[in-house]
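Support request, please re-run this one:
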Amino acid sequence: MNGQNREHVKPGMSVQIVLKQDQRSGKLTPGIVKDILTNSPFHPHGIKVRLQDGQVGRVKSIDAQ
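Re-run finished. Output below.
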């Protein structure tokens, strides 16, 4: 599942995000969602979230639970 639909992303989920500084390289950062920062129901580049460690980025994939 990709992270483009807000309804698929929930706090506490394990996700892979791309940080702002990693957008060119596409390097993914794993983490647990703390807050959802995107208000719209869909975003083509991924829903923006804050991880529990404070990092902010766009969800590229949602890890299987």
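The mean pLDDT is 95. DSSP finds no helices and four strands in the chain.
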